[in-house]
Amino acid sequence: MSSASDVAAAVPAQAPAGTSAAAPADACAVRVVDAEKVAVVSASLPDAETVTEVAQVFGLLSDPGRLRVITALLEGGEMCVCDIAAACGHSESAVSHALRLLRANRVVRVRRAGRMAYYRLDDSHVRMLLDLALTHVGHGEEAP
After folding, report:
1. Quick check: 68 pLDDT over 70?
2. Which of 36, 57, 61, 92 could form a disulfide with 4 if both were Cys (CB 3.0 to 4.6 A apart)?
3. Which band of pLDDT confidence, cut at 50, 70 and 90, is reported for residue 15?
4. What is the DSSP string of the chain?
């Protein structure tokens, strides 16, 4: 973990008054106000690989077609491709493609029964993410 002095030393100093280095109007006058807090927060941030994986999950959730598939699984539980496609109003091909991406990123899980494949959300974390997102969007609609 970096110390507060390490963090302060790593931040470039402001240009002296009267020089040509003009800062935007919304720029901080001081580069680090609370070096100790910056050090604590920096030490608590997830590593780059974790941030990339989280961004990838949110990227998967950002596509309206995939989001409809996920929502169908949230509401319907375990479903086959045909039923998901019918519920979402998408082609079976589009749903299969979405499920392939979601499965590769551990958002959904598949169970095979003979020639049939049944999909469900991988775990309760995905359900919580979607529930929170839907609640957040709904909360904005309740505002006066």
Report:
1. yes
2. 36
3. very low
4. ---HHHHHHHSPPPPPTTSS-PPPTTS-SSS-S-HHHHHHHHHHSPPHHHHHHHHHHHHHHTSHHHHHHHHHHHHH-SEEHHHHHHHHT--HHHHHHHHHHHHHTTSEEEEEETTEEEEEESSHHHHHHHHHHHHHHHHHHH--
Res. 24: pLDDT tops 60: yes
pLDDT value of position 118: 97
Instruction: Give the separation between CA 12 and CA 4, rounded to whole angstroms.
Output: 14
Q: In one letter, which amino acid is 78?
A: E
d(CA 65, CA 68): 5
